[in-house]
């Protein structure tokens, strides 16, 4: 048989249009996309505020640690004494990291079959999450990060909740298996005498800070803008931010220089 001629193809197209098949197909895919975008928007609207607030708490803590040169952790070693007062400095910081990871995991659980990139904030949030979970930027390996986040999640009547600080501290101090999951983060915090470890936290904090300022640009959720800490970054960290993170991965961030450009006092 010979190939179909142009007039034959034209007749087929006319038949399809006249029968309404293409119109129906267009309606189906258009409606499906609208539904998918609505689902993504609803999920982001539900989860964005808790993620932003958790990010704000963590950035505030890292900003304080940067200004104080991590003074809280100097001469504050891990102890075998499982008392709240002995562990409080560690528990406070661990909770702020893992609270954010828990919120991200809740978003994943609830959005398992939803394309979050169909929502503007969702797409940006996914970009930041990817940047935070890369091996180069993460403060612990991705699997550990997700596991710690999952341990803070409680499910009640098909709804997910993040543990309060009191609940987390109680579980940490009373349950050895629960506590072992946090060993990589505890190890990092008890070795902050090493510059490399301090820079890991500072650089990670910059990414979270940029996420906070990008997604809550007008600070409608957090209200207060937290100062950056570029003067506390090493030359390597500043170069990573300038030439890799903000140039390749997060090139949509506004005024990225505020995060890595050294500030000089005009005194």
Q: How is the secondary structure organized here?
A:
Layout: H1 6-19, H2 21-67, H3 84-110, H4 120-133, H5 142-151, E1 153-156, E2 159-162, H6 165-174, H7 176-180, H8 183-189, H9 195-215, H10 235-249, H11 257-260
Antiparallel strand pairs: 1-2
Please tell me what the overall shape is.
globular
| Average pLDDT, all residues | 87
Helical residues, percent: 55-70%
Structural class: mainly alpha
Poorly predicted ranges: none
Largest sheet: 2 strands, antiparallel
End-to-end separation: 88 Å
**Strand line-up across the major sheet:** 1-2
In terms of DSSP E residues, the strand content is under 5%
Helix tally equals 11
Number of E strands: 2
Describe this structure in words.
By secondary structure, the protein is mainly alpha-helical. The chain has one domain. It has 11 helices and 2 strands. Strand 1 (153-156) and strand 2 form a beta hairpin.
